[in-house]
Amino acid sequence: MGLKPKLETAFERGLFMSRWLMAPFYVGLAVALFMLLIVFARELIYYVPQAFAPGGMSSNDVILAVLSLVDLSLAGNLLLIVMFSGYENFVSKLDLDGETDRPPWMGTVDFSGLKMKLIASIVAISGIQLLKFFMNFSEGEQVDQAEALWGVVIHLTFVASGVMLALMDWISAKTDKH
Fold it and tell me: Where located (predicted)?
């Protein structure tokens, strides 16, 4: 009996088609990207007039505002990477024939690369949050030492996680495949 039973073939085809259940997740991430855009625009509209106001923002205030905008931008980049890479790795290849604006990394980021980009973005976002925290501290604000300690511990945990993921990928690349 060399042919697969029809039930097995139907089950495998259904299992393969279930990957499309991920598509709504990527639509949700696109909505989240739009939400980030709204917050970014709101922050920009809030800070720009302050920068031009007489006696407006101090240099530290400007740096904190810029860091907030960079933070939102990094989060948006992270969403794009997850959306495009995840969709192409787990659902379907993006058929964009004739599209000249296609980023060069699209279609080349595998799951391992996606993990590394993800952790690198998280470390950058965490670092910016920590820098903002310590810049507020330098302006004379009261700082909760426990909060500062936890901020550093969490950031270092992200850094250590990134190093461990990179080490695991490096070891995996060096070992023979089974």
Answer: Cell membrane
